[in-house]
Amino acid sequence: MSILIGPMKLHLNGHKELTSYGEVKNIVAGKKVYIPLQACTDILVNAGDYVKKGTMIAKRNDHFVVPIFSSVCGKVLGIEEVELKHNPGQKIDHLVVENDGCEDFERPFEPLDAEKATVEELVTFMMNAGIVGCGGAGFPSYVKYRGAKGIHTLVINAVECEPFITADYRIMNNQVEDLLYGTKAMLKMSGAKEALIAIKTTKKDLIAKVNEALKGQDAMKVVEVPDMYPMGWERTLIYEIFKKRYDRLPGEIGVIVNNATTAISFAEALKEGKPIIEKLITVSGDGVKNPSNVRVPVGVSVAEIVAQIGGYAQDEVRVIAGGPMMGKTATSDEMVITTASNAITILKPDPVDTIACLRCGRCNDNCPAGILPVRINNAEEAGDVKLLAKLRADQCIECGMCTYVCPSKIEVTEGVRRGKALLRAATQK
Ligand code: SF4
Ligand code: SF4
Prior knowledge:
Part of a membrane-bound complex that couples electron transfer with translocation of ions across the membrane. By secondary structure, the protein is an alpha/beta fold. The chain is built from 13 helices and 17 strands.
């Protein structure tokens, strides 16, 4: 089965000018950092141990291997179970480190020359460096390359289609050589003949910069894609480039996709032996006085970041983990930055009067996953799991488009999210 892609993609007002060109501000960690741990994680330190930036503190060890590193120097205080602010009800363990402000870095692994290394060495290195998808997903990247066969193209996703977010744009501008180094290493690991770096056609300055750096690199090139949403979604992007659809994974049609910042993080690991202990993220929206791109240690809270860039624009704001379309509203700004974070959007609350569904079908017409959001909403309200399965609620990518286009101001996406969760819970029984 191949998943359909709905006919519609929309041009959204990006508000990218808020953060595209200002300086990247460095955020200093406060007295404590809370480093999120996954389930099935072996803790490698004890309360009272002293760690440095880069010290390996834990390792996920179930069906994936993902080491986790300290982002600051200081004493380990222990493990605390903390509710995820953007996912109320879900609690996960966090390792708490008391930051002493020291800048010592402990290299947790040796750099690796990507030109000389074998494919197997590179894949193992990527695994042991804890490289995860930096575009928001946080999926361990090595899994895409382990045993990769029949891949003809590596796509580096630099589309960044959600409004407000410019973190990829900024980091690519600042570290174009790293982008190419990481991409080249990934290309080798994939076995593909060609790497395409997908950038929105409106980013002329970035396209020119990457093209200049790519001179003489015949196996890598820029592909320009329309400034539409959700062009950065893997299925939309692949359809745009190859006019092909797939069922579960892009590998089925010979493609691997990785995010641009992931390629840069991989380059930093290869060249410097540096894991992902800090992130360049966008903090933007009309609810913050000085929208900015910031470089922030993992485990620092949104409250600390906002305080260091000038504060909120008003007392009441809505804090969203991610962009305004796919992100999730948080219950508090004590939410911390993870290795997968790419943006925090802060908006002034916009009171809306919801009216009854007009049955206009706009949500259905605009769904890029080709499913029927309004019918899924109704099935969720009725608790009809069979119908949710029939309507393929699980295919929703939570892009936010159905809410965005709804003239009745119904939170359609939230209903579909609940429907997905209901279906998942029923199938896991
Ligand atoms: S959020 Fe809405 S529009 Fe987007 S994929 Fe899900 S159902 Fe479709
Ligand atoms: S877009 Fe809104 S009003 Fe129109 S059918 Fe969907 S839920 Fe109903």
